Amino acid sequence: MFLVRPAGAPARETGPDVDLSKAVWLDLINPTSDEIARAEKILGTHIPRRDELEEIESSSRHHEDNGVLYLSTPLVRREEDTAISLPIGFVLTDRRLVTVRYADYYGFDMVGRRQAERDATKGEPSANELLVEIIEEIINRLADILEGLGRTLDAISKQVFRANRRRNPARTGEMLRETLRRLGHAGDLASMTRDSLLGLDRILIYIGDRTEKDPQALRTRIKVAGRDIASLNDFDAQTVNKVQFLLDATLGFISIEQNDGMKVLTVVSAIGILPTLIAGIYGMNFHDIPELAWKYGYPYSLAMMALSVVLPLFWFWRRGWFGAR
Fold this sequence. Notes:
- By secondary structure, the chain is an alpha+beta fold.
- It is built from eight helices and seven strands.
- A seven-stranded mixed beta sheet has the order 2-1-3-7-6-5-4, sandwiched between helices.
- The mean pLDDT is 82.
- This is Magnesium transport protein CorA.
């Protein structure tokens, strides 16, 4: 999709009847090769393809060619049960901003709505202003993602460390497995968010040199956005540490559950050895067993087997392997 977003008017798909002479913002969403070629013809400059936007070296993500600035960064997109990171690109000329993206993003939509509601009589904003406004909205959205991630980790923490966790031991293993899955998702989301923040930070640094002729207010907005990114990076680092802490705690609880299971097997094995031994001794087919003709031999052997069960159970109880002392 190849949209033009003029001030004071809704976004429209480009076509023969659309005047692009005064348009400042051109928005390519999941563009086809024909749409990219059309944008290149309109601008007279190269438009990066997806494989170019996915390059990870800094020289590919931020460079200038014949006065045209090419910027790109991965941007996280949170969905219901997962998160994905897709590249976005900005082509910045003296008069125009071209955005290239492969998914709908809330920040772009918000700026697009504000662009449509602008007072057209006041003229179009500059390309630099539009770019900074988009970055500000993206930062706000990333902040919302981190806030939601923080609430999720708080809920996981309460679930893992709650006092009544063992009241339903049958579901403990299922809960711990689900916790590991959620923590894995949280770790992926935090990592993707950090990549997005680092990419945006580099973009702000790169465009800072081009705003010397822009109003002081715009330069101030860039500095504020940089400080916001720094604070979100700190929050993201804290979030990653909390994910690691909860992961270690969950694995520790899994180890405890496994040890408890081994304790049960140990107790069962221990209390079964002595009765089996006694039954084996008195079940031998020898004629000269002293208790063979004894009137109380049978209840005696049963009492010995019962005692051989009770004594180990009492010993394990004293050691605190089960029950409460």
